[in-house]
Automatic annotation (TrEMBL):
Signal peptide: none annotated. The modification 4-aspartylphosphate is found at residue 54. It comes from Loigolactobacillus binensis. InterPro entries: CheY-like_superfamily, NreC/VraR/RcsB-like_REC, Sig_transdc_resp-reg_C-effctor, Sig_transdc_resp-reg_receiver, Tscrpt_reg_LuxR_C, WalR-like. Residues 150-215 form the HTH luxR-type domain. Residues 3-120 form the Response regulatory domain. The lineage of its organism: Bacteria, Bacillati, Bacillota, Bacilli, Lactobacillales. It comes from the Bacteria. The keyword Transcription applies. This is Response regulator. Transmembrane segments: none annotated.
Length: 219
């Protein structure tokens, strides 16, 4: 039985997807998440095999960043992107960042089910309504397109610091961040100081500008 996590900011979408997937043999939805950070935590907590992930779950971390974080930390977890974004750049970057499949929300249910079965068998799957050119494939396979390479200093941050950064940018207090990440307020303060030191920020305004400029958060 493959354990599945549904990550989407709309409860009704999560419920619908759960109902659909739970009807399929060998697949069971064991957890849900409404944001990128929640998804990251649930992957570890629930020990899932597959995740169906929306790229746009504001306010919160950009879905492309979430995809990469999950892939880097849990490389054996299959990632199926289910998104309204049909732009080729989104598709290329999602696949390059570690997604195993990309399915459009506008497509019929059969596309998602085909994607789940393919990824469960360690195969990639791209929605049949998406046409990948040779240039797209080259872009996906290019390491130069890696998000962390494009963001100066970001790769120097620890995994936890990358979790804290978007929450600071979104305006959460130290207490709220501590509660969300299940850490102490002093630990949050230590992470903030480390982020500022590594990236050369003087205040939160610098951090917000950085997060917005590099697309690290969705409002």
């Amino acid at each position: 039985m493959y354990k599945v996590l549904i990550a989407d900011d709309h409860a009704i979408v999560r419920s619908g997807l759960s109902f659909l997937i739970n009807q399929q043999p060998n697949f069971q939805v064991v957890a849900q998440a409404a944001s990128g950070n929640e998804a990251f935590f649930e992957v570890e907590r629930a020990g899932v095999d597959l995740i169906v992930l929306d790229l746009n779950m504001p306010p919160g971390e950009n879905g492309l960043i979430t995809t990469q974080r999950i892939h880097d930390r849990f490389p054996k977890v299959g990632i199926v992107i289910l998104s309204m974004h049909e732009e080729q750049d989104y598709i290329d970057r999602a696949m390059q960042n570690g997604a195993d499949s990309y399915v459009l929300k506008s497509s019929p249910d059969t596309e998602l089910l085909s994607a789940l079965k393919a990824v469960a068998n360690h195969q990639t799957y791209v929605d049949q309504n998406i046409i990948l050119t040779k240039n797209d494939v080259a872009e996906i396979n290019s390491k130069d397109n890696d998000v962390n390479v494009k963001i100066e200093g970001y790769s120097d941050l620890s995994g936890r610091e990358r979790e804290v950064l978007p929450l600071i940018a979104l305006g959460y207090s130290n207490k709220e961040i501590a509660k969300k990440l299940y850490i102490s307020i002093k630990t949050v303060e230590a992470h903030k100081a480390s982020i500022n030191r590594k990236l050369g920020f003087k205040n939160r305004v610098d951090l917000v500008h950085y997060a917005l400029h590099h697309g690290l958060v969705d409002f």
